[in-house]
Amino acid sequence: MSALHRALAQIVGERGVVSGHxxxxxxxxxxxxxxxxxxxxxxxxxxxxxxxxVLSWAHANEVNVVPRGAGTGLSGGATAIEGGIVLSTARMTxxxxxxxxxxxARVQTGVVNIHVSREAASYGLMFAPDPSSQTACTIGGxxxxxxxxxxxxxxxxxxxxxxxxxxxxxxxxxxxxxxDTGATNGYDLVGLFVGSEGTFGVATEATLRxxxxxxxxxxLLGVFDRVRDASESVSAIIAAGIVPAALEMIDRLVIEAxxxxxxxxxxxxxxxxxxxELDGVEAGLDEDAEQIEAxxxxxxxxxxxxxxxxxxRSLLWKARKRAFGAMGRISSTYYTHDCVIPRSRLPEILDxxxxxxxxxxxxxxxxxxxxxxxxxxxxxxxxDNPEETERALAAGDEVLEACLAVGGALSGEHGIGAEKRExxxxxxxxxxxxxxxxxxxxxxxxxxxxPNKVLPSPSPCFDWPKKPRGGG
Amino acid sequence: MLRLRPDVAEPxxxxxxxxxxxxxxxxxASKVLxxxxxxxxxxxxxxxxxxxxxxxxxxxxxxxxxxxxLAVAREAEVPLTPRAGGTGRTGGAVPVAGGIxxxxxxxxxxxxxxxxxxxxxxxxxxxxxxxxxxxxxEGLFYPPDPNSLVGxxxxxxxxxxxxxxxxxxxxxxxxxVLGLEAMLMxxxxxxxxxxxxxxxxxxDVTATLVGSEGTLGVFGDITLRLIPKPxxxxxxxVLFDDVHQSxxxxxxxxAAGLVPRCIELLDSATLQAMRDAGNAINPAxxxxxxIDVDGDERTCEKQAERVAGVCxxxxxxEVLVAQDAAQRDRLWAARREMSxxxxxxxxxxxxxxVVVPRRRVPELLDRVYRCAEEQGVxxxxxxxxxxxxxxxxxxxxxxxxxxxxxxxxxxxxxxxxxxxxxLTGEHGVGVLKAPYLPLxxxxxxxxxxxxxxxxxxxxxxxNPGKIFPxxxxxxx
Lengths: 472, 476
Hints:
Chain A has 16 helices and 20 strands. In chain A, a hairpin with a 5-residue loop joins strand 8 and strand 9. Chain A has 472 residues and is an alpha+beta fold. Chain A is globular. Chain B is of the alpha+beta class and 476 residues long. Among the domains of chain B are: 119 residues, Uridine Diphospho-n-acetylenolpyruvylglucosamine Reductase, domain 3; 108 residues, Alpha-Beta Plaits; 83 residues, Alpha-Beta Plaits (2-Layer Sandwich). Chain B is built from 15 helices and 18 strands. The longest helix of chain B has 19 residues. Chain B starts with 12 loop residues before the first helix and ends in a 20-residue tail after the last helix. The chains are: A alpha+beta (472), B alpha+beta (476).
């Protein structure tokens, strides 16, 4: 038994520490398997106080700590790239309270995303952010990455749905940020904490905003023979002032994979389909659906289908939400990219991606949140083939370049993590990055909580103010 | 504590003189006002916060002017207080230690409205009502609508994270700020956030700046998210026996899954002030809700019907649905004129902006009435009942009433915290509430925020005396 194991077991008990090599290897990466590092131990606390004790111990002993939810992230955020221990929230899964009148839920952050909506369902409420990984990913991970999902087009991303947090700072201090009413008093520390990718502290409890489940929905499937027609339809829908609950594009390669995996009945000869969902009160919903159908047809849709019942609707959503998993049917490996473009540039950017695919001779599949311009190009390759892997990575870089060239953002919902650090100085000036470093320094002055994530390395010199926290 | 200045050291005579010399040299007389009248004019906002008249007022015309003013403050070591429309209610734009007031109202261009991306880019001094008009002409909508909308500027809205009645459905300013430029005390010009609908690139510095009350940076261009303009709006005016009945009604509406655009509450004393100002209101009414619903025409009508149904079910005295735009305007005009009517009731009025969980609104009002009666202070309350965000007004004429007003305010804050509420919904902490922050927040939490303040402004020169309690300032 190592000294490390003993120290951690003293805090969380024997069953809260994982130190065998094989078991630790399970924690070597998140969804980006290209980046792997085995942590020296994994600790699974069950309470805020245990998290605090672990972080205090790590702070005193100068040990790196990498927080981890379900490990479904796609930017290497939960990978211990600089060594140290992984702090998993997997045992903090309780929904503490649901208050139907204030439409809020208080949860431990290790709870799986979909469990919150399931618990809230009997009150007619749901937690709106719905990343594709929602059956596995945790609220804590969602908070760290500021996760999105298809329905965030209408409902907003995670930051719009977190009212208050209990967080443990890197030195073990416990703070309550925000207020259950959603009001902010002083700086908006919740807004700042959400999306900080596990580098500011470990959130242990959260008060989430719940939204009423829509009275009615209409789910449409627009079928297109040309990708460009599909993307023009997206622009037309947005320009018409309609705000669908979701507006997703799925292209031919993804349809092929989904059909191979699930046989849902998507048209395999289509170049792309749009999955469009409207929700709200029943009155007026059919008019909006008809308007969308007309817009799609006017922009060259072959047909627009409408889900006739809940089972047809959930089948269509299965196609979308499990698309990533289905890719295994047509490719041994794939790299999931995440970038955002101004949504009116969608038609041209998809052309560019097609060019990149041809030039680099790798297949690129597209399944993404078209309504808010959030692309997820999936680059398919064989990771046993080093030369093809090289081309796949090059293609990914070119896609990012192209998005930035039209005024896009580096990430829509997967975060920067370890994956895109070096890209940060492409979109931000030294001064912008310096402001980010300053903010991080206020929370995490030693940098040992999730080290070397988000910001480019090495950190340039900065004259940190000398006064300790709490002074003057 | 109302008239007590925070304990912030004033700059030395030499520092002031140096600042004036540098400003004159680098910006010229046309942009720098130093005469007593002008300095006096720019020393207060719409609050009772007591100023120390600044030594100079800088009228910025562009971002370089802002950077220059910040550089002068840094070099001469004098405080700098940013100011937009000056309509704040907690003293955020009030200089408490002299120095420089930096006014951005001259930077008032709407630079871009993009219908396809649904964004607007505005300079910091754009007046809110001008933005509303410009975007609505394009079929778009910018929801935040603080009552001061004809005078307040976007920079001030962002600094205070302003709300307004429509926040109930649409959320407050922070939900609409995609990105912004900020000039920092160290001389950096940063661009935070994005122009795209989504984006999580790095830390959310935008979130840090929104609601920072002018203490972290001075804003330049602001990129705002817009939404499609709702096709139609319907207004209902509902009268109740008392605030308990109206509170039940709000609870029932929420429970029924209704999301009106706004739910405004006016209490008994407010209704009386309106009657005194010549509005015919049923004398039996002890509370009023003004409710807007919006959406396309059919959705709107359906919602209005359901809202009216809930009101009837809880036994409302009267439910009036505005039949046309003119009637709707009259209802809202009465609501807006109300603050003028209230102002006429006494020489001084302080509107305390507090939030309690929605269901505790009637309970808070009971406590406020009791406390006001005990202290012999006149009070009336109105506000955004849907959000539990109330404006409790205290009225007085003579300064010798001040200790009793102070006592009533402190009791209000203690009651708010006791009921699980928070000290400010949309007006910010500013000067006036800084002494009370420790009632709500732990020492560790305040220390963390001070750390953030320090990394942006190590010398503590940018808008000092705001948000954080200073020693010798207040009771806590």
